[in-house]
Amino acid sequence: MDNGEVLVFSGNANPKLANEICDYLGIELGQAFVGKFSEGEISVKIEQDVRGKDVFLIQSTCPPVNDNFMELLIMIDAITRASARRITAVIPYYGYARQDRKDQPRVPITAKLTANLITVAGADRVLTIDLHAGQIQGFFDIPLDHLFAVNVFVEYFSKRKVKNLVVVSPDVGGIKMARAYAKRFSADLAVVDKRRIDDQKAEVMNILGEVEGKNVVLVDDMVATAGSLVEAVAALKKAGAQDIYAAITHAVLSGPAIDRIKKSDLKELIVANTIPIPKEKEIKKLMVLSIGPLLAEAIRRIHNEESVSSLFS
User: Fold this and answer.
1) Distance in angstroms (rounded) separating the CA atoms of residues 260 and 5
2) Annotated catalytic, 285?
3) Residue 242 phi/psi, 5° resolution?
């Protein structure tokens, strides 16, 4: 790609992923200072000319969520005021996505609020991967390209040559995603039917589908405290499953997640690098796959005004 026409910048959320994307595209990462003033306010300076350029800003809104989200907004504003031709916010992990509806009285729809803020800041387009809820695409009044990490995981399991697979959704809401995996694996589909106790605990009810004697791949868009995940693993083991893997795009891994995973019967947790994994959370059971090439190819196609629909599959 011609670095004279397209520029890629990154905040502090995931610079390693941004550099992977730039390596794939054959360009240098854009020069920008993103820090803080003494009182904690975000300080941004774009250190090269962006006038008339097609700019892609890589920034997951992962923990620390509010700092990374404000970096995203302020960088968009700075690039807008510097007269960029187009700004695409590349948000591999879209935070606040779980607050996508009013599930009880007097609560906000924060996923819609954050979409409004990104648009008002000056973004012309959004590129993201595996949204927690598909309807969030409709929260934006600008074009949004929604990619899926499924092929990255399928390639990994194909190389591992895991036989006798069944794909399992950890809840009823994830059936659509699990069906997409099952189709690519040419595997059967099962569902963990559960009842949630609170935001950190879930009581598993039963398994819908046949898992006895089979190797299982649990699929989901994110793992936070891992409560639902380890409950599902325990239920699957009780139902006679053999090796249990989990393919989960966004590794939030908050609170007791790592301890829970260590103590569980989960053989391996495979995640994408939409969120950087700190060293203290790098355990033997964790495998991190790169979605850099997928995002880079989407960026290349958007810049060249080519179709990106084949990447949605």
Assistant:
1) 47
2) no
3) -85, -115
Count the Cβ atoms, other than its own, within 10 Å of residue 62: 21
What is the distance, to the nearest Å, from the Cα of residue 22 to the centroid of all Cα atoms in its chain? 19
Q: Which residues are CB-contacts of 97 (< 8 A; sequence separation ≥ 6)?
A: 111, 131, 132, 133, 136
The residue annotated as part of the active site, out of 45, 53, 176, 194, is 194
Query: SS3 breakdown of the chain: % helix, strand, coil, rounded to 5?
Result: 35, 25, 40
Match 């099952």 to its residue by tokens. Answer: 182
- Please answer whether residues 127 and 298 qualify as being in contact, where contact means their C-beta atoms are separated by less than 8 angstroms: yes
What's the predicted TM-score (pTM) here?
0.93
Per-residue model confidence as pLDDT tens digits over 36-76? 999 999 999 999 999 999 999 999 999 999 999 999 999 99
All residues at 6 or more sequence positions from 40 whose CB lies less than 8 Å from its CB, including other chains: none
The amino acid occupying position 35 is G
Taking alpha carbons only, the member of 152, 185, 194 closest to residue 291 is: 152
What pLDDT, on a 0 to 100 scale, did the predictor assign at position 161? 86
- Please give the C-alpha separations between residue 126 and each of 2, 122, 129, 141, 200, in angstroms, as whole numbers: 21, 11, 10, 10, 30
Distance (Å, rounded) from C-alpha 184 to C-alpha 247? 14
Q: How far is CA 229 from CA 61, 83, 226, in A?
A: 22, 46, 5
Tokens 């510097």 correspond to what residue?
Answer: 82
DSSP classification of residue 264: S
Element (H, E) at 104: none
Confidence band of 199 (pLDDT split at 50, 70, 90): low
Cis, peptide link before residue 278, omega less than 30° from 0: no
